[in-house]
Amino acid sequence: MTHTTVPTRILIMSGKITEVAVKDLSTRKVMQKVTQFATLKDFSRIVKQTGRDCTVQRESVWRFIPDKQSKYMSALAQGYSDTSIFHLINLEKSVEILEPIALSSGVPQDLQFIDHQKLFISKDFNWVHIDGGNRSDTIMDWFDNKIALQPGNYVIPTGEGDLVRYTLNKTNYFTYEVCCEEFPALVEFIDNQTIAWIEYSGLNREERRDLFERLNDNENLNTEELRNCSTSEICTSIRELNYKYKDRFVLDNEKKTFVLKSNAERYKFCAYLASLLNYYTFRGQVDAFSPKTLDSDYNSNSEAENNFKDFKKFFESTFMPMVKYVGDFTKLGGARNRLIDLYCALVEIYAEGDEVHRLDNNKLDYESFLECYLELVGKYWGEEDARFETGRSSCKFKDLYGANTNYKMKHRLELIRNEFIPMLKERGIVVTKDKTRYFPQEWRRILWSRQQGKCALTGELIPITDVENGDKVHIDHIIPHSKGGQTIMENAQLALAGPNMEKSNK
Prior knowledge:
The protein is 44% helix and 12% strand. By secondary structure, the protein is an alpha+beta fold.
C-alpha cells in the first residue's frame, strides 16, 4: 500500500522567502462598509444628496452617449436592477474618523483631503460617489422626463403571480410622465426595483484611490484618470479649465479639430492643459509633455501649482483669443501641433516683457502673427533632408510636428526663439513695452505750455487751474503704451478727461 505525504504548507507562488522591514510594510486595513438596499424611488432621494467627486469619476458622461441612459433605464424596467451596485462614501462619518488622524499627523495632503470632503458637506451633500455617478444621473433624468424607455415588449409579474405585457412602440416618447399616464403598473414596477449600494466610511486618500482602481478593473484606467484622483488644488483647477475650454479645441469635425477626440477623452485634455501650464512655468527647461513631469506638477505646492493663477490669466487673455482667431485646424495647415508652436511663441514673447502689436481697436494683431508663422514654417516644410536629430534617429522638418517629444520640441523651440520671434520684431508685429507706464506729474505744466494751454485731442482750452487735477485732465501716451509707446516727454500729451476716456473706450 502506497502512502502519500500531505504537505503541511502549500506554496502558492514559487520564489525566495525574504523578510520585509517593518517600515516598508503596507497597511492592509479592512474597509468600514455596509451594504444598503432601497427601492429605486427612495434611492433617487439619496442621489439628490450625493455629490459628484470628479477625482474618482471617469470623464465618460452617459448624457452625451446616444441611448446609453435609455438602455440603462430599460434594463431596470426588465428587472435587472441587481446587476450593478452603487458605491458611496458617507461624508460626515468619514470626516469624523479621518480628521483627528490628519490633525495629529499634520500631513498637508491629509488635511487637504479633509477640506475636500468638508466642501461637499458645506453644499448639503451627505455622500459622494466612488462608482455609479452616470447611473445616478440617469435615474434623476428619468424622473425629470429627460429620457425615455426604449421600444419593446416589457413583461412584468402581477401580484397574483401572472405576467402582463406592455408594448412600447415609439422611440423618444415613453418618459416617466407618459408611462405614469399610459402604463402606471409598469412605473410602479420600476419604482420598486431594489437598488443595492455600499456605504463606506473612513477611507483615506490612498484607500479611496485604490478602491476606485479596483472598481474599474474591467477597464484599465489610463495615466490621466489615475492622475485625476489627486485632491491637490492644481488637479481641481486644471479639471475646471478642461470643462470650460475643451469644446474650443475638440471640434466635431475631425478635419477641423485642433485636438482629436481620441486624444482628449478620459481626462487626456487635462494633460494637454497641464503641459501648457508646465511650459508657461519652465519654458522648456523640462519635458512639458512627459507623464512623469505632469505627475510631479500635480503635487500640492509644486511650482506649476503656484504658477497656475498667472497661467490661467495668460491662457484666457492672450492664448484663447489666438485660438478663437484661428478658428479651426484648417487655418494652420500641415500639422495640429503648430498650435503648440504658437502658444510657446506667445509665452516666450510675454515672458521677455514684449507684446504682440495692438490694432486700432486695441485687439492683438493675430492675423499678421499667424501669417508670419506660416511663412516661416512653409519655407522648411518641403525639405527632404533628415537633418534633425531626435534621439535614436533623424527626421525631416515636417516630422518634428508628429509629436511633442522633448527632442522634437527642442528643435521647434530653436526655430521659435532664433527665427520666428526676431522676424516678428523686425516687422513690428511684436513690440517691446516700456516697463515704465506712468508719466511724472511734474510734466503737466511743461506739457500745458508746449500745447499752448489746449487739449491735444479737441483743441479746447485747459484752464491753468485744472492742469494739476487728475480728474479733469489726463496725461497720456501719444502712441499708446499697449502698442509699444514709450513713457518719454516726446510721447506725452495733455487731454481733457472726457475726450480721453472716449478715445480709450473705442
